[in-house]
Design brief:
With 171 residues, the protein is of the alpha/beta class. It contains 5 helices and 5 strands. The protein has a 5-stranded mixed sheet with strand order 3-2-1-4-5. The longest helix is centred in the last third of the chain and has 24 residues. The radius of gyration is 17 Å and the shape is globular.
Length: 171
């Protein structure tokens, strides 16, 4: 059976790790236009950025489940999603192959479990792709995550600015 949606996800962290993070999901619903989603936070790790990218994409699928399953012929109401990631840790964590006990991963893993459990229930398959290897969708997600992170860093510098609050240098 084909997938209703293909998500290609990536995260970006400012050196040193942890630092400011950006995350992105390139959402490809079957028979629909591609959607690009991004987010950023002032602090996190590379692993939290990668997992937040997956959550961002799955939230979109959940919120648009009727749209992405309308073209299905089998009448099954729950979306089938292929998540493509260059993070083996995130893939293994989601599939419960590795430990999820570190506090940031524990919280984000619980969010993942809730999204997949529904409603609607999401059927998720995983595919690991090698990062920075020329995969066009992975390269696009990587670029979007980087731009989200650097945009946040610039916004923090402009809005908070020197003298009002002390913030760590996120560059």
């Amino acid at each position: 059976m084909g997938h209703d949606v293909v998500l290609t996800t990536d995260g970006s962290v400012a050196p040193p790790n942890p630092g400011a993070i950006g995350f992105a999901a390139v959402v490809e619903p079957r028979d629909r236009p591609v959607v690009e989603l991004t987010g950023a936070l002032p602090a996190g790790t590379n692993n939290t950025a990668e997992l937040r990218a997956v959550l961002l994409g799955l939230e979109w699928v959940r919120d648009h489940a009727g749209l992405v399953t309308i073209a299905r012929r089998d009448g099954h109401p729950n979306p089938h999603v292929l998540v493509r990631t260059d993070s083996r840790l995130v893939m293994n964590c989601a599939q419960r192959v590795c430990g999820r006990n570190a506090p940031p991963l524990q919280d984000l893993s619980a969010q993942y479990d809730g999204l997949v459990a529904g409603p609607p229930v999401l059927t998720v398959a995983w595919e690991w792709v090698r990062g920075h290897s020329g995969d066009a969708r992975n390269e696009r997600a990587d670029r979007l995550a980087f731009e989200a992170r650097t945009g946040l860093q610039e916004t923090l510098r402009l809005e908070i600015g020197p003298g009002r609050f002390h913030i760590p240098d996120l560059a």
